[in-house]
Amino acid sequence: MKKHLSLFLFCAFFAEPCLAQEAPPSYPARDITLAEAFRLALARSEDLAGKGEAVTFYEARIDELQSNLRPRAAFGVSQKWQDASSPSDDPSSSSPTSQRLAAVNVHHSLFNGLRDIIAVKAAQSQTAAARLAYERARQLLYQDVASAYLNLLAIHDELDIRRKQIEITGKLISELSSREKIGRSRPSEVLAAQAQLAQNQAALAVATGQERVFQWTFRFLTGLDMDARPAVLEPPAPAKISEYLIRAHSRADVEQARRTLEYAGLFTNYQKNQKLPTADFDGNYYLTRPDGAARHVYWDATFSVSLPLYLGGSADAQVAEAQSNRRSAELALSLALRQAELDVRSAQDNLLSSLYMTAALAKALAAAQANEKAQEADYRYGLVTNLDVLTAQTASQNTMLQLSNAKVAAQAAKIRLEVAAGGPGN
User: What is the model's pTM?
Assistant: First the structure.
C-alpha cells in the first residue's frame, strides 16, 4: 500500500512538470567583454547619434553667425520699360522708354551694438553644451550596457546554481528511494526531497525565462544577432569618495549646465544691446546706368548711422525674459551640482554595503558548506534525518545565490560610482 501511495504521489509531483519542462531551445552564443559590448552599443545607439547631429547643427550655426561679421557682395541687373513721355517743346525732358541698370553692391555692417559678436559667442556656448550632452549620454549608455551585461552574468550564475541544486536533489532522491525499498528511509523523506526538486525545477524555469529577456535587452543595446556569454569582471575595490566628488563637480552634465548659464548671460547682453546705435556701409559700382544726369557716375558709397529712440517697450520685455532664463540657468546649475554629489554619495554607500555583504556572505557560504558536509556525514551514521540534510543543502545553495547577487551588486555599484563621477577614466 505504501509503495502504491508513493508511486501515486511521485506521478502527481512530476507528471505535469516533466511534460512542461522539455529541454529549452539552444541559441548560438559568443563570448564578449564589457568593453566590446560598449563599442558595439556606441555604433548602434540612435539616441547617441541624434545627439551627435545636434552638435553638428550648432557647429553649422556658428559658421552662419560668423558670416554676419563679414561684408557681403552682390551683382544685380534690372531692366525697366515705361511709356514714352508726352511730346514737349524741350526734347531733353523726355524719359527713355527703356532703362537698364547693372551694378555690384557691397554691404558691411560696421557696428551692430556688438550683437553679432555676442551671437557668435552664445552659439559657441550652445555648441559646447551640445558636446557635453553627447558625452553625458555616452556615459549613461555605458551604464545601461554595463547593467545589461551584469544582469546576464548574474542570471548565468543563477542558472548554474539551480542546475546544481537539481542534480544534488536528484541524487538524494535516488539514494532515498533505494533506502526506502529496504526500509531504511520513510516515504515522507522521499516525498520531501521530491517536493524540493519540483521547487528547484520551477525556479530554474523562471531563471531561464529571465535569461531570455536579458539576452534580448542586451541584443537591443549592442545590435548583436546572437546570444552573449559575458566574461567575469574583476572584483571592485573601495575608493576614496573625495576623489569622486571632485570629478563629479566637472562631469559632463554639470559642465553642460555651466555652458547653458554662459549662453543665458550672453543672450541677456544681446538683448540689452538692442538700444545701442548701428552703423552700416553700402557701396555700389555701376557697370550700366540709364541715360541721364548720373550716366557717367560709376560708383557711390553710403555710410549710415541709426540710433533707436523708442522700440515700443519690446526691448525691455526681451531683456526681462533673458534675465529670467539666466536665473533659471543658475538654478539648473545648482541642481546639477547637488545631483552629482548625491549620485556619488549614494553609489559609494551602495558599493561599501555590497562589499560588506559580499564578505559576510562568503563567510556564511563557507559555514553553510561545512554544515552540509557534516549533515551528510551524520546522515550516513543515522544521526540526522533526510530533512536535516535537505535543509542544509538548500541553505548552502541559497547562500551561494545570495553571494553571487551580492558580487554583481558590488560591480553595479562601482560602475554607477564611476558614471556618477563622470565616467570611467574621466
Answer: 0.81
CA distance linking residue 345 with residue 417, whole number of Å: 8
CA distances from 233 to 149, 151, 271, 357 (A): 10, 13, 54, 18
Question: Residue 235 in contact with residue 35, Cβ under 8 Å?
Answer: no
* SS3 of 6-19: HHHHHHHHHHHHHH
C-alpha 283/C-alpha 73 separation (Å) is 9
CA distance 195 to 372: 19
- The answer to whether position 276 is within a domain reads yes
d(CA 122, CA 262): 8
- Joined together, the cell numbers standing for residue 85 give 513721355
SS3 381: coil
Q: Work out the number of other CB atoms within 10 angstroms of the CB of residue 5.
A: 11
pLDDT tens digits for range 177-194: 876 677 666 777 778 888
Which 3 state secondary structure label does DSSP give 370?
A: helix
Q: Which domain holds residue 376?
A: 34-78+100-420
Number of domain units in the chain? 1
**The three three-digit cell numbers of residue 417, written as one number:** 560610482
